[in-house]
Amino acid sequence: MKQGYRNMMVTNPTTAKCCHICKLPGRVMGIRVLRFSLVVILVLLLVAGALTALLPTVKEDKMLMLRREIKSQGKSTLDAFTLIMQTYNRTDLLLKLLNHYQAVPNLHKVIVVWNNIGEKTPDELWNSLGPHPIPVIFKQQTANRMRNRLQVFPELETNAVLMVDDDTLISTPDLVFAFSVWQQFPDQIVGFVPRKHVPTSSGIYSYGSFEMQAPGSGNGDQYSMVLIGASFFNSKYLELFQRQPAAVRALIDDTQNCDDIAMNFIIAKHIGKTSGIFVKPVNMDNLEKETNSGYSGMWHRAEHALQRSFCINKLVNIYDSMPLKYSNIMISQFGFPYANYKRKM
Amino acid sequence: MKQGYRNMMVTNPTTAKCCHICKLPGRVMGIRVLRFSLVVILVLLLVAGALTALLPTVKEDKMLMLRREIKSQGKSTLDAFTLIMQTYNRTDLLLKLLNHYQAVPNLHKVIVVWNNIGEKTPDELWNSLGPHPIPVIFKQQTANRMRNRLQVFPELETNAVLMVDDDTLISTPDLVFAFSVWQQFPDQIVGFVPRKHVPTSSGIYSYGSFEMQAPGSGNGDQYSMVLIGASFFNSKYLELFQRQPAAVRALIDDTQNCDDIAMNFIIAKHIGKTSGIFVKPVNMDNLEKETNSGYSGMWHRAEHALQRSFCINKLVNIYDSMPLKYSNIMISQFGFPYANYKRKM
């Protein structure tokens, strides 16, 4: 190539001219330009090669992670959820409910938060009645705390949590639909139990349900919370909960209540919009009357409702704001039950 | 300043040195540098001055526009919508409906697309029955085309369009609620009439409603279109429609049908997700039986339903894809009608 260039230099009159930028003779200039061009081309090739080498590796890592997850459980953990069910003194209900929930589509695993301190978990019984469709892990707790179910469980592999109280039976169609809704709104609590806070002229809030004054001046009602005890939410919110001020954990421990109200505060504050979306359940039952344990749920305590209002005001104090936002969006499944969208004629 | 500089030159040894870049004496170099610096500084000052002069003017213009709009209409055009109602041969229904719609909250203006070619618009009558809450503009058309209502009307100032057929009465609570839903999903058609396309083993699609086979294997039904004739959508989609291939306009003109199917195709393709969200109407009526004109709507033509299926397949051909996506989300207003969320016990 050098040979050819020298020939070009001799025959091409332009290269023989003086470069007006610099005083060097054309021929030397020519070689320097050639060298410079070659260096630039080489550098570009190296950069391109580096990029080509880097990009697929990043993609491969992601693909590898996905494949590993799929292999280990037989389904992608992006399309599945983990049931977290906390239980205290209602093992008969728990086992009845587990028989139902273990068969729900897209369920990855069940984590049972065993608040029966000192009592053995029913692993043996459970295993003797296997095989089961999915793994169920009984986690013995050290103390009977309401907030035990909000720990960051290492066994949890999915992006979504289904949290259900140990006396609540939610039908499979409801769960399948609500999960599909959560997948479209993964930053919000998608659940079946709406509640609201009500402001009063004194600035003190009350907690309640449909019986309370609807806020605002329009038609209908509003909700500002979706209770986590029958809901889907993003598993990263468990980590978010653990990062909250100690005062929040103390409030929940003192009242043995309000972990769900706290979660709604935390999430609303985090996302800057309403914490949850209400999905109207078609078939959801409370089984607490069916228990043989004689144990009634916490919400039967005389002070329960007042505690909930108390918690709201305490949380406003802790966060120095009221982050809850109202919504009146109610989601149902189109065409289920049959023809539920037919309008009145 | 020149005086001071000359003194500096004499006393400052560095300026007396030769500039190594150029062979001119230091003093001449110094003056040239000074002049150059002054020119640069002057230019920068002019640019800065220009920017300072321009910026507030732009903001002021926007503020002025907003204020003018607020003054003229009493509401911000971000929180208001424009009703576009196309009409043909049903002026009695039109005027009855206008009496209702003109009083809907957050309505900015009405644009009546007058497809009665050769017949005078009822401006005189309308004005004689004033004053009216909002402006109503009757736009005489040059030809009776179905797609006339999808023009980019210069009178349209709002981000949202409410499009209603001239025989459809939608109650105010339904409109107020659906508009609030649209504000949360401004890239989708939020409306009251869901429809779907149904694939067949031959690859040929059919158009239909609840009577047709639900796609997929789950519970309930799905919809893939929300008809624009009773809906809110983003006004920029009118511009998007005008930018579509001529074949789309030709199809609508040939069938005098399918402008709404086309809009769903266009929007689904544009946003990569389902084109619309279905809001279940509480009180919506079709008044076509009440007209004295003897004119029945287009959908009574024998070939109407077959045309709709025909249009779907034509549009798939034009766009070389099926962009419509299914959804089973049905939205209702929480607590309206009263206690509509109470679950079965």
From TrEMBL, chains A, B:
<feature type="domain" description="Glycosyl transferase 64">
    <location>
        <begin position="81"/>
        <end position="336"/>
    </location>
</feature>
<protein>
    <submittedName>
        <fullName>Exostoses (Multiple)-like 2</fullName>
    </submittedName>
</protein>
<dbReference type="Pfam" id="PF09258">
    <property type="entry name" value="Glyco_transf_64"/>
</dbReference>
<dbReference type="InterPro" id="IPR052427">
    <property type="entry name" value="Glycosyltrans_GT2/GT47"/>
</dbReference>
<keyword id="KW-1133">Transmembrane helix</keyword>
<feature type="transmembrane region" description="Helical">
    <location>
        <begin position="33"/>
        <end position="55"/>
    </location>
</feature>
<keyword id="KW-0808">Transferase</keyword>
<comment type="similarity">
    <text>Belongs to the glycosyltransferase 47 family.</text>
</comment>
<keyword id="KW-0472">Membrane</keyword>
<keyword id="KW-0328">Glycosyltransferase</keyword>
<dbReference type="InterPro" id="IPR015338">
    <property type="entry name" value="GT64_dom"/>
</dbReference>
<keyword id="KW-0325">Glycoprotein</keyword>
<dbReference type="InterPro" id="IPR029044">
    <property type="entry name" value="Nucleotide-diphossugar_trans"/>
</dbReference>
<keyword id="KW-1015">Disulfide bond</keyword>
<keyword id="KW-0812">Transmembrane</keyword>
